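All the exercises in this workshop are built on plain-text protein records. The record below serves as our worked example for the rest of this section.
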Amino acid sequence: MVSGPEAAPASVDPREIDQFERLGADWWRPDGPMGALHKFNPVRVRWMRDRISARFGTENAANPIQVLSGLTILDIGCGGGILSEPLARLGARVTGIDPAPGNVEIAKAHARETGLEIDYRAVTAESLAASGAQFDVVCAMEVIEHVVDPARFIATAGSLVKPGGLLFAATLNRTLKSFALAIVGAEYVLRWVAKGTHQWEKFITPKELEDWIFDAGLDVTERTGVIYNPLRGDWRESRDMDVNYMMMAERPGEYRHAGPT
C-alpha cells in the first residue's frame, strides 16, 4: 500500500482524523469530550490483561503489577494514549500509532509527564504493516467504526499479529438499540460525546467482524458485550452485545517471543 502524500491508505478517513485531532489536551480531561472513554477504559484493560496474561503465561509473573512484562503490544488509533498508558504500566512494551500528528504529540507529552516510555508514531497501520513489523498483541479498540474500509483495515491489523499472537477489537453493533443508546442517548441526550462522533451506518455487527477476522487468517476465541451501569456509573462485561462489544482472536502458529520485527 502507498502511504504519505502520494495517496491516503484505505483505512484513513480525513474527516474522522480532523474530528479527533481537534480534541487536543481534552483527550485527558475525565470530564471532557472523552469522558465516556475514560469510564470505559478500566473494563477493557481488565478484559485484555486477563486474557493476554493467560495466553502468554505471564499471570504468575514475579511482579503481578507488571503482569504483561516483556510483551510487545501495538495500539492502533491510540489517540491521546488513554489505552496505551495502562498497558505500559502493566509492563508491556507499547507502540501507539495514530495518523493524526496532533494526537501523537498529546500522547507523547502526557507519557513524559507520567514517566512512561511508549513508542508513539504518527503513522498508519498500513505503513507499519508494509515495514514487516509484527507484535505479540495488536489492539484495534473503538477505531474500526471510524475507518473507510473496515474489512481491509482488519486484514491489515491481522497482518501485524505474530504467529500465536492475539488481536483485540472493540466496536459498536449496528442495531436499533445501539442507535437509541449510542447515537441519540450518548450524543444528543446525555452529551457524553460530541454530536456526529459516530455514524450508525458505520457500526459493525459481530458477524461481520468475525468474518473479516477469519478472512485475515485469525480465529475468534472470545467475545463479550459491555454495558453501562447508570447506578454505579461504570461499565461491566455482559452477554448483551447489542451495543458495545469486544472480541479476541488468535493467529495460528507457534508463538516465539522475540520482540517486534
Notes: The chain has one domain: 14-173+204-250.
